[in-house]
# Entry
Amino acid sequence: MIFQLTELEYNVFLILTLVLVAFKLGLIIFLGKKIYEHKRETGEFSFGFVFGVFVLIICLFFSRIIYIYFDFVLTKFNSEVYHLMPNILMWKLGTMFSTMGYAIFIFITDRKILGFKLRGLIAYLLIGIVIIQLVYPVSTPEDFQTIAMLDLFSNAIAIIIPILFIYLAREKSPYRLASLAIAIGVILYAIGSNMIVEPILVALIDVLGSNIRLVFYFFSLILKVSGLVLFTYGVTQFAIKFSR
# Structure
């Protein structure tokens, strides 16, 4: 059975998605301003935590723009055509931007906060997953489900982000609340992302019917917006206090 949105559902999804994009754009502008102010005050450009978040949000922003084109223009949420050209190309590009953003952010966090204890291995693993997804040939829906499954691994690896900030919040400090907000925000965003990974949806559709896709897309967008609100608050506090 082919999943098809009603006009109302399509418009609600589009509005929620645009709200998500607006949050990301606002955060990009805010962080860019903080980075510029820091450079103007110190005369130096810092590749610190705020810069890492700045790159991450830019990547997530472009990823979402590509996914909007993929979801609302090319496929209209019809999973039967995900594997066709140019649909699959757009999906791969969207996934590449998203995962590379996490890889860069984790690498910078490893260098600046953990003293490079992870040796960049988590970031390199994410980059490896991106390369596999880009070069893997897709000609059937089953092929698409195979590379989409790798998103679960990427999101599982990215769990290092909330773990890190929970670790930072273990003791009283000026950024304890901000760390918890970032951690919880990332967890909510990750849950929202994993809810709509295609292999999960296909398995649920077999049991609960095609309408479950609609329910999961809706709650996915709600969780992503909620997660980004918390993440934005936490990052804002870091930027205000440290601007580095």
